[in-house]
Fold this sequence. Notes:
binds iron/sulfur cluster, TIM Barrel, 28% helix, twelve-stranded mixed sheet
Amino acid sequence: MDGVLDQNGRPLRDLRISVTDRCNMRCDYCMPAEIFDSKHQFMHRNELLTFEEINLVVESLIPVGLKKIRLTGGEPLLRRDLENLIQMLSKHSVEIAMTTNGLLFAGRGDSLRKSGLNRVTFSLDSLDPQVFERITNTSGQKIESILRSIDEAIECGLGQVRINSVIRRGINELDIDRLVDQFEHLPVSLRFIEFMDVGNHNRWRHNDVVPSSEIQNHLKKRMTLIPIDSTYRGEVAQRWKVEGKNGFEIGFISSVSQPFCGDCTRARISSDGHLFTCLFASTGTDLKSILREQSNENNLQDVISEIWKQRDDRYSELRSKTKKPGTIILPKIEMSYIGG
Length: 340
Ligand code: SAM
Ligand code: SF4
Ligand code: SF4
């Protein structure tokens, strides 16, 4: 039974929860330093959903069909006592994953896993200190500690660890090989993500996108890739095993060149409690007001189910049909706010 279906027959299976809009990096394609500077107004603590409120949202979605939660941000590990939230959420029968830049992960793998975290994804766009610094506005010396954190996550049994990398034309194409060299001996999934036109400040141009097919063709010159069938509806990555490399896997998330809206089962909640039914939505529904209203007139499950039933989002598919990609809906929500 699929639970509630949207206008295109898609169930609500996944929920991405942004637990903070703050970050300890300033990636140029996500939170460029000149925009997210010392004058930028981040959310006040009382604007954020509390752990109890997040838990109520998740609880209300279980009967709707929710199977998987991803904690994200901003940088989720900046949210104080994140383990407490994970422990609360682990009482529900859902998989709990987290996406992190890895800067604050060291020494926390065990406590995160014991709290109930099932999987972790690290974002790492470059292994070259200068390129890393140019992209993230963060010292290239941090690469070593991120790599140690990845080892720690593997050792403490946090599922199959994933490494996400956004490859952009003229910025970090050399990292395709560097990342494969670095990780091919480890039981990890290395996933190349196409640069998306999300947010308003990353100066996205179609020409900057390195299509997955190009990376695949490049890699096929050095290794034999064996396709892996998708295991569930809504799986966004096309995955490949690599001959002779046990446990290592390469994935492609081709949101621009091969949009997967038809199978998109994801909802998102911003850290101030707005529900979005698409990464490219320009408005969301304020769940925090519903959660905090005294009268309890609105039942959260009914409200979200109703929104989901009306959902007909398919931005990426529409983008691929327009002549001027990236210009169809403006302004958009920032990735750090809505949760990547
Ligand atoms: N700070 C955490 C991190 O970097 O892993 C979690 C939040 S971040 C917004 C989640 C993911 O979104 C990262 O892997 C990042 O590379 C990706 N991302 C951000 N902006 C993007 C864009 N314009 N296109 C593709 N991926 C993007
Ligand atoms: Fe921060 Fe992640 Fe965005 Fe980079 S991609 S600025 S680490 S939220
Ligand atoms: Fe889902 Fe919207 Fe992305 Fe399409 S564009 S895959 S509907 S989030």
